[in-house]
# Entry
Amino acid sequence: MNIEEISAKLSWLPPSAARFIEKRMKKIPAVKKMIAEENAKTIQVLEHSSKPYANKFEKHYSLPSSGISREIILDEITTMSNLESGRWKDGYVSGGIYHGDAEHIEFLNKVYALQSQSNPLHSDLFPSASKFEAEVISMVAHLHGKGKESHSKDVCGAITSGGTESILCAMKSYRDRAREERGITEPEMVVPVTAHAAFDKACQYFGIKQVKIPITADYKVDVQAAKRAINNNTIVIVGSAPTFPHGIIDPIKELSDLALKHNIGFHTDCCLGGFVLPFAEKLGYNIPMVDFRLPGVTSMSVDTHKYGYAAKGTSVVLYRDEELRHYQFFTCTDWPGGLYFSPTLAGSRPGALSASCWASLLTMGEEGYLRATKSIFETAAKIKEGVKAIPDVKILGEPDWILAFASDTVNIYEVLDLMGKKNWNLNGLHKPACFHIALTLRHTQPGVAERFISDLKECVAYVKANPGSKEGLAPVYGVAAALPFRGMISDILKSYLDVIYKV
Ligand SMILES: Cc1ncc(COP(=O)(O)O)c(C=O)c1O
# Structure
């Protein structure tokens, strides 16, 4: 029996039973051997796709005895950048590069170069970093309801390295606040199954129990189930605006009202929506309120490096007030290295990224973001309309601009593989099996939406006529979704990370 057959036979197992059986099975030599062989096969597929330069450039295992010339280095990097940029420039990539216009990138690069030595840890040396960061936080806070209501006048925040760090910071703050103010030593977080994996990471890192809440038929979290999950150890409820997998906005008002009633925190993960929803609302689209105008929302994550069109490496975590933000800050008063204090997980930080984030926000302005949002929503409408005419494929729920595709009749992962062969780089998802495209400014270029629709149509028709491909990643996705032994999947993912770090 191979892993695929085992998955099919045991997919009914509840997670705790699967974990128990897996632990036992891994001790049987024949099973251990089979797992090792399956892992090796999967890793080989992944290694092939992740190391295209293996035979193209010299490998450096240790320092060169004397320095290589700058020209050679620049040459190599230019070659690699050129090889890698065609796909995203032409709008074949889901998410990833959100603006991508050459002039915008060149401008941000100039700002980076001017500030490349700046480190916000040393605000005495670089007061400009403090100005840039404070103003970015203020601009983002005002986008999300600061001062709109009497209860939202004290919204404040911090700059982090990305959505994950913003979420980690917020979750740590809730854990520490609950311990300090309510004596909670076994904290729990109520989180939709569709919330980003960063919340799982926060739970692992900070010892918080995660209570996962299912979604309903519209791909929004089940509010009644969230209500039932709250107990005396609950420190925070989470909702996404929108979710990464299906691009759906959770019922943020209902969830945050629930949190308010129980006097616990509520976090809106607006990493994807932070620079889209406020502008879509202004443009007159039907967008629910998700920010600090709702009295129950106590923190938010908003990614400047996504639809804020800043360079990669910044996000903003917002808090309702400074009292809550204080639980995020770190101070060390007895270190021989002096009095130490830092706001986020890192110590030294790239001030240049904060500067280029500030520059992105200021040069885009409200008008720029309104224009960008309008064109992304119009592109989404075009694709939604086009997909209606493709039999065998459907969009999950009623998303705005992140569209997840599934099928009741063809293997959607085989469609995904074929789209890959047509140069598309889309996100494979599971539970349920689907893939998505997060539409960005790259997709608003003329002809891109039409190309997506016609490629999708062709790929679906091909899979319908030729089902059961054993090539590509489709079988890997299939097993990864169905195998009840999640430890095995986790082992494969760790091996994949080993591969990425292989020279
Ligand atoms: C909804 C949501 N939250 C959080 C994150 C994590 O952001 P990052 O990859 O910047 O850490 C993402 C990333 O795609 C996201 O879509």
Summary: DSSP finds 17 helices and 13 strands in the chain. The chain has a mean pLDDT of 94. The first helix runs from residue 3 to 10. The radius of gyration is 24 Å.
